[in-house]
Amino acid sequence: MQPTKSITNKTFAEDVLDGLSDEPKHLSSKYFYDDEGSRLFQEIMKLPEYYLTRSEYEIFRKQTEEIYQAFDANKGEFDLIELGAGDGIKTSLLVDYFLKMDSRFSYVPIDISSEALNFLTDKFHREFPNLDIQTERGDYFKTLETFKERSDKRKVILFLGSNIGNFSAPQALEFFRHLHEVMNKNDSIFIGFDLHKNPKTILNAYDDSLNVTARFNLNLLKRMNRELGANFETDNFLHYASYHPTECAARSYLISQKDHDVFIEELGREFHFKKWEPIYMEVSQKYNLEMIEELASNSGFEIVQNFYDENRFYSNSLWKPA
């Protein structure tokens, strides 16, 4: 069941109130992906600095058969469930191969953006007319609750694009423990992790020369204007990215360039922004193998197999419940 607009806006408004009332101010990156945010992220993925998409795509393109074998995609029916489906470019490589190998599966993409889901559905229907597609729009935390009720088929869950990097360590642990609760013993999950590397390479991925990432962050203020009746002027803010090697984390901020107030009609509240005050927007956590192993173990999973690109910039890790 899709959330109604009023419920969505109510949750959005509550999260904004919590974030802008806190010290320091922060906003949730899960609201980046409205239709315009999804479009901007497609631009980001094509940028020369943004190595993540290319690295993961290389794994899918060059190791398709190995992934097929690791998924046991030739052993009975299963649901291929993708969290945060986006445009499905990488997944289409798997779908194409699985269909050619006569695998019996349904594809279930989940995304917060209706535009992304509609684009993906149209694309996959054209490319794979015999594919059974069942789309779900909404927050995948809520959608996870319905997984056990969906069917008794085995589930292979895709969580790609280094989306786990947008969670803090406690959030990542909570997410996988929650996921573990709605998975059966024979289910599995395939996760994309961005790995440690040259700090300059990482920073450039979040501070591109064309300022697409800046527009992506500022778009959240525009979304608040449109959906919550806020009066943000985006020219009053600048985008700032940083990378902290000791924490293995890239962080993005919007920095207020002047003292000013913003009124949000949906909240009936005015918020003051000091000159040079930051709004913390998102974290992009990087991992090494030890961190991946610890996260899997602490959330009740065991690692089946890790896949790497040639540069070892990136890993896709296949887990199953322990």
How does this structure look, described?
The chain is about 40% helix and about 25% strand. With about 325 residues, the chain is of the alpha/beta class. The chain folds into two domains: about 5-50 and about 200-285, no CATH class; about 65-195 and about 290-320, Rossmann fold, CATH 3.40.50. The strands form three sheets. Strands 2, 3, 4, 5, 6, 7, 13 and 14 form an eight-stranded mixed sheet that branches. It has a four-stranded mixed sheet with strand order 1-12-9-8. The longest helix has 17 residues, at about 5-20.
Structural class from helices and strands? Answer: alpha/beta
Report the sheet with the most strands, covering strand number, pairing sense and barrel closure: 8 strands, mixed
Helix content: 25-40%
Fourth CATH level, the homologous superfamily of the largest domain: Vaccinia Virus protein VP39
Low-confidence stretches: 1-7
Query: How would you name the oligomeric state of the polypeptide chains in this document?
Result: single chain
H-E order: HEHHHEHEHEEHHEHEHHEEEEEHEE
Q: Helix count?
A: 12
- Globular, elongated, flat, extended or rod-shaped: what is the shape? globular
Gap from first CA to last CA: 31 Å
DSSP strand content = 25-35%
CATH class of the largest domain: Alpha Beta
Using only CA atoms, what is the Rg? 20 Å
Q: What number is the mean pLDDT?
A: 92
* Total DSSP E strands: 14
User: What would the CATH topology of the largest domain be?
Assistant: Rossmann fold
Q: Give the total of domains.
A: 2
**CATH architectural arrangement of the largest domain:** 3-Layer(aba) Sandwich
